[in-house]
Every structure is written in structure tokens, then in C-alpha cells.
Amino acid sequence: xxxxxxQNQTTANVSYGEAVDLVRSFLERRYQENIPLAYVHTxxxxxxxxxxxxxxxxxxxxxxxxxxxxxxxxxxxxxxCAVRENAEDRVLGAIGAMKHxxxxxxxxxxxxxxxxxQQPHIAEKIRKSYPYVDLLFGxxxxxxxxxxxxxxxxxxxxxxxxxxxxEGVAEGLPVRRDQAFKAWLPIMSGCNNFCSYCIxxxxxxxxxxxxxxxxxxxxxxxxxxxxxEITLLGQNVNSYGKGxxxxxxxxxxxxxxxxxxxxxxxxxMSSHPKDATLELIDTIAACDKVCKHFHLPVQCGSDRILKLxxxxxxxxxxxxxxxxxKEKIPDISFTSDIIVGFPGETEEDFxxxxxxxxxxxxxxxxxxxxxxxxxxxxxxxxxxxxxEEKSERFNRLxxxxxxxxxxxxxxxxxxxxxxxxxxPGRSGPAYYSGRNDGYMIVxxxxxxxDIGKFVTVKVTKSLNWALLGERVPDK
Length: 475
Ligand code: 5AD
Ligand code: SF4
Prior knowledge:
The chain is about 35% helix and about 20% strand. It is an alpha/beta fold. The strands form five sheets. A six-stranded parallel sheet has the order 2-1-3-4-5-6, sandwiched between helices. Strands 15-16-17-19-18 form a five-stranded mixed β-barrel. It starts with 15 loop residues before the first helix and ends with a strand. Iron/sulfur cluster binds next to α7.
């Protein structure tokens, strides 16, 4: 992919703290006793949601309040995703829809950031077709938000910064978490794998792990603050630790975090099968706080396509991991990501994917139709299959997974699970809903005060998308 395009550096050249103070006093002068409001919308994966929480942390520190109604906003920020085209189309639609509001209000600041704008052709498109966007920046310069915002506010500048140099996960930024009992904790950034369909390594850069001491300190403070579920994030958590000076890998990190005292559970995502080890599975088995849920994206069930995808494993390698995990942890729940319609996928290749689904018996799937990403290897591969045929395969995949999931869910009737309650359920007004260790949705007769707590539920019925149960006394 083409290197950096036009840079528009800020003149401020101040430290993070100084820039926060500059923005804060500017806002106080401009808005006096009124609190300026920010509307922040994040698209895409949990990594991006986590970045969005840091963006909100920084905005709060600078003096912004928040609104869910874009019409009331003094600052609009769209934190974008580049993984598939439809997410990009939605963002461009949203920017287009904001034109009038921005043109009417000279003091409104419109920011677009995240993975999508890190692609030079998108940055260029926004510059040309949506010139009213005030601030455009990529994921590598998240911590420069106050400095860039100050230049926009005080100097009325349009800033575009898609620098490719960053420091990995920025340490020490304030975080305004969306939830009070579930937290995202990035342990690394970037990706080195270059799966041939994927844009992530181009927009998020190379893998960089955080020091285990920094992760542990953040983890401890989350536990102290009462968080009940902490999800460790990385594009490929299984390669955590590479490049660090300390002797650590992901399994060791899990053991270290599992040893922190408290009543909480640990999740992680995503894992790459080529780097998943038997040591990791033994660790999941041994750590009481680590959920018995393995999200292990397989992408497809054809060795030929896996090779073209540059995934670095075969179906047999994947099945070896699944079998080992099922032996060690009989009630483990497997979920996965599947791409349907990769360039050149034949009916036979696709049937390999269906066969794999039957063998693994995933509890749920995140399935996608292949989306061509400019600059990736797969974008230049022959792709003779029509969209109609890809959609038809996609529907067959969903139908099979529904069948498999429903059959598996029927086996859970009569079992008792500890669930962390998220909020009202979908099964009726008296129902509350949470997830069990295996990431399945469980609806039960609950109360508002259960939200954010662990409760014990006995499953009485299986629905296609969830389990239904009754609250029973905790063990
Ligand atoms: N098209 C469709 N799906 C994709 N993913 C990544 N890139 C693409 C693409 N170009 C999916 C993969 C990955 C998940 C996060 O998104 O399944 O695991
Ligand atoms: Fe993309 Fe593959 Fe990296 Fe996941 S591991 S972010 S699919 S390149």
C-alpha cells in the first residue's frame, strides 16, 4: 500500500497534558457555563470500541459532556472500521448526512478517525468529496487528539493525520468505559499475519505487545473498581509477548491475571489457530477465572482456500486443537469467524466449510461474505463466483449453523449456569439476560438490581438464539 500521503501537522507541538489544558480553557471561553457536548459513534470490532472509550476519556478530560442525539452535538466523532465495505459505506453515508449540520454551524467540529481513514484512498476521498470534515486521523495518533483538536478549534485548521508511526497501545490515556461491570483491556495492537483478505495489518501496523506489568496494573485496578468481566483484546492474542524483553507468552499472562484475587471472569479475543498452543488450552483448563469459551476463527474448511488466505494451518491442524480442547475441557464452547465466497472458492471448498461446522459443532458463528479490500493480496485474485451464488452459500451456512446451534442448545436444558447479568432480556417484560461462561445468552426471571451481578440460573428451555431459565440459589 502507498506510504503516507499529505500530512498536516499541528503547530502546537505541546505535551498531551498541555494540549488538554489548552482545549479545556478554549472550551470554557467559548461555551462559558454551558458544557459542550460530544457525539461519539464507534463502528467495528472490540479493539475499536476500546479506542472509542479512550477517545471519550480524552474528550471528558478536555471538558466535553456526551449526547446520543447528534443534533445537539458541538463535536461529532465517527470512529470507523475498514474490515468490510458495508461498514465503510455506512460511514460515508453518515458523513454525507452531516453536511448540512456542519455547514450551518461554524463552531461544530466534525472528526472522522479509525481504521477506515488510515487507508490513503479513503483519506483522499474524504478530503475531496467531504471537505467539511475538520479532523481526520488514524489509529496510530489517538493520543494526539487534544493537540489536533486544539489546532482545529483555535486555529480553525483542517487537520489530516494518518501517520503510520505510533507507539502501539498508548499508555496512560484516560478511559471512559461504556459499562460499569464489563471492561475491554487491549494487551497488544497491530497484526503481523497478513491474511490475504484482510486490511487490518495495513491500517493498524505491526504487532506490539504491552508490557505485562502495565496490563497487570490496569487489570488490578479494574478488579478493584468492581469489574466482573475483563476481555483481553488483540488481533491475535496468541502471539502476545513476541518482541518484549520479558519472558512471557499469552498462556503465562493468563495465569498471572487469573491469580489476581476477586470474583470476576476473564475472556479473550481473537485467537489465531496457527499460534494456539496445547499449553494455552491446558492454561484455559487450569485457570478457574478464564471462561471455558474459545473463539477460534477458522475462516473456512478447505485447505486450498486456507492456503490462499495465508492462514498458516490446515483443517487437520485446526481439528487437532478442537479435539484436544474438548478432551481437556468437556464443556468448552467453540465459536468462530467464517468467510464465505473468498476469491475462487468452489462449491467443493464451501462444502468443506459445512463439513467442518458439523465436526466442530460451534455454539455460534460470526459469518461474513468476502469483501474486497484495496491493497490486499486477495484483491488481485480471480473471483469468478457471482454475488448471488455467494449469498446463496452464505444462507446455507447460516441455516446449518442454526440447526447445529439449536441441537446443541437442547442439550443444555436442565443444566445450571452462573451468568453475568447484562440487562433486560428479550423473552418478555419480567426477563433479564446475561451470558454464561460459554458466551451463550441466558434469559431468566430477574430484577433490575441483578444487572452487573453474577446470578445462578437453571435452564428450563432452549430457544434458537438463547437459553431460558429460572434463577436458583447460588451454590
Ligand atoms: N471480508 C470479509 N470478512 C473479513 N474479515 C476480515 N477481513 C474480511 C474481508 N475482507 C472477517 C474475518 C475476521 C473477522 C474479524 O472479520 O472473519 O476474523
Ligand atoms: Fe486480519 Fe488475519 Fe490479522 Fe486477523 S490475523 S487481523 S484476519 S490479518
